[in-house]
Specification:
Shape: globular
Order of helices and strands: EHEHEHHHEEEHH
CATH topology: Maf protein
CATH architecture: Alpha-Beta Complex
Radius of gyration: 18 Å
Bound molecules: inosine 5'-triphosphate
Largest sheet: 6 strands, mixed
């Protein structure tokens, strides 16, 4: 864990120890999660909104490549005197669909939505909840990329789980109403389907639990943790 407020250097918020990170995103759900997670580490996250079409999200094979391409474009739009800009790219990778929608999640959500995804999986059902979870296995994955004024630093995170049969809940955003995370053991590691862990939504989707609960499992939180760890290890090496 980095020393509070020291790691990124530069760009402190006046009168505080916070470091400003401009987060390029149009997604309020992502913004809320990043702000909530980084605030206790004394990083002040501010949303950078650019007019529609300013940044082109290329169709590349991996989340890392997409995030790096977005950073390369976005760093030219940092507010005057600012140095740190972050982007995050995430997707839902559904195993029986060979990883679809994956890097196309944003487009899939805007077109077929979660109802369309449920239709694609409608033949994969079982009375046995454990077997159903295995048949409908999926994971959320996230890559966060931070430009620190000199280089890009990456963090990545995964949240394994399964696609529910029916949607439920109106918390969160995107595919949250159809995603049930795997339970976690006391170290925060995911357990196989059907194994009860100390951290559990008890079969509820991310759409049916508060943000604080989603954060315990979240691919985004894991990606942010991995980013902070990477920054910390780079600081130790230098
Ligand atoms: P940006 O402005 O930050 O690019 P976006 O909504 O386009 O926001 P992504 O391309 O990273 O975000 O994510 C693709 C889609 O994947 C997103 O629109 C959601 O539908 C879905 N998704 C990503 N993370 C999710 C999460 O935590 N919960 C539910 N759905 C998520």
């Amino acid at each position: 864990m980095p020393k509070r407020g020291i790691i990124l250097g530069g760009n402190r918020v006046a009168g505080t120890m916070s470091t400003v990170i401009w987060f390029l995103t149009g997604n309020e759900g992502k913004l809320a999660e990043a702000t909530h997670h980084l605030a206790p580490l004394d990083f002040e996250v501010r949303q950078l909104r650019l007019p529609e079409g300013t940044i082109v999200e290329p169709q590349l094979d991996t989340l890392e490549e997409v995030a790096a391409a977005k950073i390369e474009q976005a760093k030219h739009y940092l507010p005057e005197g600012e140095t740190h800009i972050m982007v995050e790219d995430a997707g839902l990778f559904v195993k029986p669909l060979d990883g679809f929608p994956g890097v196309y999640s944003s487009y899939a959500f805007q077109t077929i939505g979660f109802q369309g995804l449920l239709r694609l999986l409608s033949h994969l059902q079982s009375e046995d909840p454990v077997q159903a979870a295995s048949l409908r296995s999926a994971s959320f994955q996230a890559v966060v990329a931070l430009w620190d004024g000199e280089k890009i630093i990456f963090g990545s995170g995964t949240c394994p789980g399964a696609i529910s049969v029916d949607p439920s809940g109106d918390e969160g955003f995107g595919f949250d109403p159809i995603f049930v995370p795997l339970d976690l053991d006391d170290l925060g590691h995911p357990l196989p389907p059907g194994v009860y862990g100390v951290t559990s939504t008890h079969g509820a989707t991310f759409g049916s639990v508060p943000l604080e609960t989603k954060q315990m499992f979240s691919h985004r939180r894991r990606a942010l943790d991995s980013l902070v760890a990477e920054i910390s290890s780079q600081n130790q090496d230098s």
